[in-house]
UniProtKB/TrEMBL annotation:
GO terms for molecular function: chorismate synthase activity. It catalyses: 5-O-(1-carboxyvinyl)-3-phosphoshikimate = chorismate + phosphate. Reduced FMN (FMNH(2)). Belongs to the chorismate synthase family. Its cofactor is FMNH2. It is an enzyme of class 4 (lyase). This is Chorismate synthase.
Length: 406
């Protein structure tokens, strides 16, 4: 399975392109609308989420609600495009079209097109300007923007449909921390049955008391003109044993999941299972002891007394619930503007700022779920690949890797 995205934040649309999707997955435009709507959830998001609409169109790969095995292209149109048509036009634009009002003779450039010469710390702005030899940040931030994750969420929705329909794998994601407010260590983990309830929570947090404290933290932060990060977790239930491999570095599934999650905008840390907490434990309390199940007598007749490893040992899925966490830095566009340099004049300045989310942790969980789904779907096809859902199921049944949940 291969996937790519294209599109700018204020361009006409984003594109998700998937190649290698098997035939026979049931999938509709409404399914993709539903996954995209989940990405817009979350307390503490900015004004843009309220007015901007995602307009989904499946361009290829699906016929009458079923994938055909051909490349899947999905376009996510941006309802705000008419406001940006000139500023982000692909073709050259007459200077007069970029002035406030050519008719009244107002010669000032429209605000949207003014050069962004005060790079924002934490964003791709400055490194991108230096790398691509640009005098302003617009061409960098348009692609670096987390708006791009809409395309990855669509791609992940397709991957999740494949995982569920071919192998019975189901995913769920939730928020573990917002700033310093964290779910207690011993809190219960959500299951896929809890997904709807999580989507109703303002921060997609499974612990009601903690969620209230998170809302208060977002409010306090907004009042201070500041932004917040946090920690999200993705859980994959029913993953077949043996996805990924210990035999080569780039086949290890934990490494592949880490890359997928780390590549989400604003991610600064990834953990598998208990991750960093494990580093502080002694070995006798760090692993998952193996005990026999009834009628044992082979490697298959075993179970575990814990899941500290997060379902991955030796870079392979071991049949336990896969647990991947991502740590998100606070949004880089800080209302209480940070110091920078105006590169047009070389003078000290404050960073460009118009509007900002206070906290994007809740959508980050949905995005992390999408990239985990893509990575697991890719690994599933390597293990039990086939050209159709039926063929993959036959392969899985033959290997005995399917879990009961399937
Ligand atoms: C983003 C900044 C904000 C977000 C945007 C991602 O946009 P703006 O700076 O134009 O207000 O709203 O996210 C989305 C539009 C989206 O759909 O997720 C950023 O800097 O990454």
């Amino acid at each position: 399975l291969r996937w790519l995205t294209a599109g700018e934040s204020h361009g006409p649309s984003l594109i998700a392109l998937l190649d290698g999707v098997p035939a026979g997955i049931e999938l509709t435009t409404d399914d993709l609308r539903a996954v995209l709507a989940r990405r817009r959830l979350g307390y503490g998001r900015g004004a843009r989420q309220k007015f901007e609409q995602d307009v989904v169109r499946i361009v290829s790969g699906v016929r009458h609600g079923v994938t055909m095995g051909s490349p899947l292209a999905v376009e996510i149109g941006n309802s705000e495009w008419p406001k940006w048509e000139k500023v982000m036009a692909a073709d050259p634009v007459a200077r007069g079209d970029l002035l406030v009002d050519a008719g009244t003779g107002d010669e000032r450039e429209i605000a949207r097109n003014r050069p962004l010469t005060r790079p924002r710390p934490g964003h791709a702005d400055l490194a991108g300007m230096l790398k691509y030899g640009l005098a302003e940040a617009r061409p960098v931030l348009e692609r670096a923007s987390a708006r791009e994750t809409a395309a990855r969420v669509v791609a992940g929705g397709i991957a999740a449909a494949l995982l569920e329909q071919a192998a019975g794998v189901r995913l769920v994601s939730h928020t573990l921390a917002v700033g310093p407010v964290r779910v207690p260590e011993d809190a219960a983990l959500p299951t896929p049955e809890d997904a709807a309830r999580l989507d109703e929570d303002p921060l997609r947090c499974f612990d009601a008391g903690t969620s209230q404290a998170m809302v208060a933290e977002v409010d306090a932060c907004q009042k201070d003109g500041d932004t917040l990060g946090g920690v999200v977790e993705v859980l994959a239930y029913g993953t077949p044993v043996g996805l990924g491999s210990h035999t080569q570095w780039d086949r290890r599934l934990d490494g592949r999941l880490a890359q997928a999650v780390m590549s989400i905008q604003a991610m600064k840390g990834v953990e598998i299972g208990d991750g960093f907490a494990t580093a502080a434990r002694r070995g006798s309390h760090a692993h998952d002891e193996i005990v026999p199940t009834a009628g044992a007598g082979s490697a298959a007749g075993t179970t575990r007394v814990s899941n500290r490893a997060g379902g991955l040992e030796g870079g392979m899925s071991n049949g336990q619930v896969i647990r991947v966490r991502g740590a998100l830095k606070p949004i880089s566009t800080v209302p209480r503007a940070l110091r920078t340099v105006d590169v047009a004049t070389g003078e000290a300045a404050t960073a460009n700022h118009q509007r900002s989310d206070v906290c994007a942790v809740a959508p980050a969980a949905v995005i992390a779920e999408a990239v985990v789904a893509l990575t697991l779907a890719d690994a599933l096809l390597e293990k039990a690949g086939g050209d159709s859902v039926a063929e993959i199921r036959r392969h899985l049944e033959a290997t005995g890797a399917l879990q009961d949940a399937a």
